[in-house]
Amino acid sequence: MLVEQGFQQVPFQEGNPYTQDPALPSLLRRLIPPRDFPGASYAANQRLFNEEIEPELERFGAEVITTIRAQSRGNRISPPKLVQYDNWGRRIDELQTSEGWRSLKATAQREGIPGIFYERKYREHSRLFGFAKAFIMVGDSHEVFCPLSMTDGAARVVELLGTEGMKKDVLPRLISRNSSSAFVAGQWMTERPGGSDVSQTETKAQSLGDSDSLGSKYSLDGFKWFSSATDGDIALALARIGPADSGSRGLSLFLIPLREALNNRFGSSTSSTNGVRVHRLKNKIGTHALPTAELSLEQTTAYLVGPLNEGVNNIVPVLNITRIWSAISSVGGLRKCLAIATAYANVRRIDGGKRLLRDVPLHVAQLASINLVYRALTHLVFGAVTLLGRVECGVASVEEQNRLRMFTPIVKGFAAEKAVAAMEEAMAALGGQGYMEETDIGRLIRDGIWEGTTTVLSLDLLRSTTNPARLKEFVSWSYSIILMCPPGLLKAVQAAIQSLQGRLDTLLAAFLHPVPPLIARPSLMFIGYIASAIYLLEHAIWSHSRGEEGYEIDAEVFRRWVNDGSFVAAEQDLDRIRSEVKFADASNSAIVFGKRDHAKL
Ligand SMILES: Cc1cc2nc3c(=O)[nH]c(=O)nc-3n(C[C@H](O)[C@H](O)[C@H](O)COP(=O)(O)OP(=O)(O)OC[C@H]3O[C@@H](n4cnc5c(N)ncnc54)[C@H](O)[C@@H]3O)c2cc1C
């Protein structure tokens, strides 16, 4: 039989990723309330949202599945290549990225990523608007948002701590929409002795006793083990001025100009790469188009950013912003997988061709459970984005600032773990076709986790709750939303609310001091579940009160999320670890490495 003969499967058609999304449009309508824009009447504000923000997201959604997606078709996107020597034996370290990679990056910059965040046209809602655009493109971005997220973080560091020269010459380029002159920034923290813990950083900085418009000049020498924005224009790097045994307290933050044009412009090193050599490109399991490299630094000219010896504190905005970005990427990836699985259900027939998958209850139940995870994660991530926007615009209360500090490691860790598992479910919903590279689901699973581990994030969560008041604030915030539930809605969700209240008690009990470190990871997952449930409830209350279309579904989603087996298991997990904590260390070691320490068991 010829391939053209016999059964021909109709390909699935994905809809507009904004208008067809099951959660985003109504979530944004709640989070960007029309009356909130400054200095305009209610009617004008309503127009701003209805006639500006929504149509822009609709237009952009249509671009994503047409022109933007086309930028990575065929062989337009491919892994980068490193040419270290020319044919005369000279070291050149030429990094060749693919046409698709460069054009996707330029498209994102022109669309205002990260410009929108700093133009702040929509005040504290600018983060929501910009991240909504990124969210609908990220599944087709081949991770160009990884370097752009670091650019975003670098812009924030320069905005907060940069010299006047950096604010004048560097910041406008970091946030520029003109892709031909916009800068991309990398962050160079991770070294061979450790990425989670930078206290053993080996890179040394020496003052050159000189300065120019960008600030005080230093010379850097060291080896950076991971650099994902290797095609960037500048980098923010940690380096040590004092002795090696000064740990992380001896680290300072530096801005490094890269590339010849920049070096000339900044009057820095005469070498074509400012003393930065690309030792090797990493051979990664995912993010294949992203040029992640190992770099050596020799007499690299750099400029001090912020106070000396406070490098770890000074780079915190980059870490926090990229963590939110990482969550946007994981959940945005899931958005695309879910859209594909849902679209496939509309065209694939089973049962001897009698039924479409969309009419098969068992299959629809599987799609509904992916949808549930997607909605919960979307509400959680955009909840954190709302807080970020408020903090950056100086309108957040102290409680909101603390909540953002607590939520930042949670959203990254929780979103990455839950989204990737749900992506695998979406893959299975396409049968064998799901396993094919062309659907993109495999790539999205591989790209779903960028860097950093849930364990390390969970330790950061523990640090953020060292003061017991922080956890109590979280519980009070949860109750403030629970108490807003109107009687009409309460009937439908009362049992779920009672369960949630019980889980808040479990959480408080788990964090009674001293908090055992072994609860770090299960509590990150548990708080992730609780926080997303509270956000879902907040949304259900809003849509019920306004009689929004589909308000019953919002209530049902909240109810199901609270009753979901994995949420129940997360509570049991935390309880079990708390009760076993005294013996767990020794028995875990015995399980993993053999029974060497049986006296402790
Ligand atoms: C695709 C990709 C791109 C990256 N891009 C960049 C980049 O651009 N710039 C950059 O600076 N870095 C980058 N990184 C590096 C990344 O930030 C580090 O890999 C990460 O911080 C972990 O550090 P590590 O690899 O040294 O692992 P380690 O810190 O050695 O961790 C190894 C294991 O030990 C566990 N662990 C570590 N400390 C503790 C602890 N105290 N308690 C319990 N468990 C612990 C971790 O959970 C992990 O499982 C990138 C990584 C990847 C995968």
UniProtKB/TrEMBL annotation:
- Family label: Belongs to the acyl-CoA dehydrogenase family.
Q: Which residues form the Acyl-CoA dehydrogenase/oxidase C-terminal domain?
A: 309-460
| Short name of one Pfam family | Acyl-CoA_dh_1
Q: Say if the entry is tagged with keyword Flavoprotein.
A: yes
Q: Cite the entry's keywords alphabetically.
A: FAD, Flavoprotein, Oxidoreductase
* Feature: compositional bias, Polar residues: 197-211
Q: Which residues form the Acyl-CoA oxidase/dehydrogenase middle domain?
A: 187-299
- Region feature (Disordered): 190-211
Q: What is the lineage of its organism?
A: Eukaryota, Fungi, Dikarya, Basidiomycota, Agaricomycotina
- Which superkingdom, per the lineage? Eukaryota
Q: Which residues form the Adaptive response protein AidB N-terminal domain?
A: 46-177
Q: What is this protein called?
A: Acyl-CoA dehydrogenase/oxidase
The protein's required cofactors: FAD
Q: Name one GO molecular function term.
A: acyl-CoA dehydrogenase activity
